[in-house]
Design goal:
The chain is an all-alpha fold. The protein has nine helices and no strands. Helix 2 packs across helix 3 (about 30-45). The chain is elongated, with a radius of gyration of 25 Å.
């Protein structure tokens, strides 16, 4: 979308130019075979298309801006998840969750972060007095072997 927001950007370029633009403008290391596949996909999508705006319309510029912002947000998300995973690796619960098949590091840190938020909320005395939660029972979740003995 950033490189080719309109079919006219693709239709008047050679296959080699399109492939080279794809290779030079991706953050990932893309192979020549994959770049050629993307180039073919772009050409196949551009040929039968009938765009509702011209290639120099403001909507094309907005599309480029939105695509750039989307990639920035994805990169921020990946960076944030890496930081949270580094923090969570110190917890025993993280290693338990990641040992479950199908639970990746991203999926493991989410419930830990939510539970930490709940525990922080329960630490405030005024909140605990007004709520129906019992402080001692809420701490038992972290001590898994004692759960069955307590209930």
């Amino acid at each position: 979308m950033q490189l080719f927001p309109h079919p006219d950007y693709v239709l008047f370029l050679s296959k080699t130019v399109i492939k080279n633009k794809i290779i030079n403008n991706t953050n990932k290391r893309i192979s020549l075979v994959n770049a050629e596949k993307k180039e073919i996909e772009l050409l196949e999508a551009a040929n039968p298309s009938y765009p509702s705006v011209s290639s120099n319309d403001v909507l094309c510029d907005q599309g480029k801006v939105y695509a750039c912002r989307y990639h920035e947000l994805l990169n921020q998300k990946v960076h944030c998840i890496k930081k949270v995973v580094q923090l969570a690796q110190k917890n025993q619960e993280y290693s338990i969750l990641t040992s479950i098949p199908g639970i990746d590091p991203n999926s493991a840190v989410r419930p830990l972060a939510e539970i930490e938020d709940i525990i922080q909320l329960l630490k405030h005395d005024s909140t605990c007095e007004a709520s129906t939660f019992d402080k001692e029972k809420s701490k038992l979740w972290w001590n898994i072997p004692n759960i069955s003995a307590t209930f």
